[in-house]
Amino acid sequence: MYKDIKSFTLAELQKWMVMTGEKPYRAGQLYNWMHVRLVRDYDEMKNIPGNLKEKCRKNFDYVAVRPIKVQESKIDGTKKFLFGLGDLNTVESVWMKYKHGNSVCISSQVGCRMGCKFCASTLNGWERNLLPSEMLDQIYAITLLTGERVSNVVVMGTGEPLDNYDNLRRFLELLTDENGLHISQRNVTVSTCGLVPEIKRLADEKLQITLAVSLHAATDEKRRKIMPIACKYSLDELIEACIYYFNQTGRRITFEYSLIKGVNDSNEDVRELVSLVGGMNCHINLIPVNPVKERNFEQSDRKTAESFKNSLEKYGIKCTIRREMGRDIDGACGQLRQSHIAGNP
Ligand code: SAH
User: Fold this and answer.
1) Ligand 1 atom closest to 112 (CA)
2) Of the candidates 227, 296, 233, 298, which has an alpha carbon nearest to the alpha carbon of residue 256?
3) Which of 10, 57, 99, 314 is the most buried (most CB within 10 A)?
4) Which atom of ligand 1 is nearest to the CA of 256?
5) CB within 6 Å of ligand 1 — which residues?
């Protein structure tokens, strides 16, 4: 059972109302204030009687993340937010404006324990899981701060979402609920470094969300050097889980492949990638690796990236080179929080 009211489903709230002698319709009103009107405190709930507000306050926490810092890109308008949580931890989220709508990238954990070598989120290890409400509230706070509706959500910020499975599952339920923000499942992407049992579990839920899998290398040997999770699950197991996900949901898998100079961007790498995923119904996102101060990886140059893409396309593999958003504002995962922890202004 959750201690915070924003992580409750509408059905659970109704049950609680009835159990404690309130009218069940109060649940709908409360839920609407929290998940549609996005109020920051019980005080703002106009049609809820004072004694009920008091009772809620006594029984439940009300999660509302606090903006600590905002950075805006001068290149593309991308905004990066650092939010404070109730326990003095911080998380970061990114707001990106695209032609097709506004997209928010949220964090799923404070820190991360996956240890990918190129990633800033993992530098200080894992602190704790985020609650469903803490994931939701990153989106709610950004909606209020920008004054614009969010249409797409990607769980690609700090943390490994499938390492926080139950909270993620509930977050997805609340986010796509027709009584809440009602974001379409098809507009939600969850990114994982490849936790095989959890990918299968998610597949069995038969949601219409997109699963993005961080591949970054096409042989076990190479992948193990940059992603510790590859020591736990082989690429054969991972690909089998991806095929299972597609078969269960009908949703094409997105593979993420960060291009790192001299590490995974050669012709040999293209061939290995083709033999791994050729014939699968998938899409590859090529992302020039974002250099992280604490790590010594370099971005593949533009020409190498283009030729990598062209070669893949020759084999009939669909791919795009992802436009880098917010390069000038610590674009890479975890960098804003990292610089905050390190005491930089
Ligand atoms: N833990 C999840 C989601 C968070 S990371 C996962 O691993 O997928 C989101 C994506 O950004 C992943 O594909 C991750 O590998 C990638 N990433 C992390 N650091 C990066 C960097 N410095 N440059 C480019 N991509 C990076």
Assistant:
1) 1
2) 227
3) 10
4) 13
5) 114, 116, 118-119, 156, 160, 191-193, 214, 256, 258, 287, 289-290, 292, 332-333
Of ligand 1's atoms, which has the minimum distance to the CA of residue 214? 13
d(C-alpha 212, C-alpha 255), whole Å: 6
Could you tell me the two tokens for 156?
A: 């690609």
Tokens coding 187 = 């507009």
pTM assigned to the model: 0.96
Q: How many CA atoms lie within 13 A of 178 on its CB side?
A: 0
Domains of the chain, start order? 5-59 (1.10.150.530), 66-341 (3.20.20.70)
Identify the DSSP state of 140.
Answer: H
pLDDT at residue 334 in the model: 64
Asked if 63 and 91 count as a contact pair (C-beta separation under 8 A), the reply is no
Residue pLDDT, tens place only, 182-224: 999 999 999 999 999 999 999 999 999 999 999 999 999 999 9
Is 333 a known active-site residue?
yes
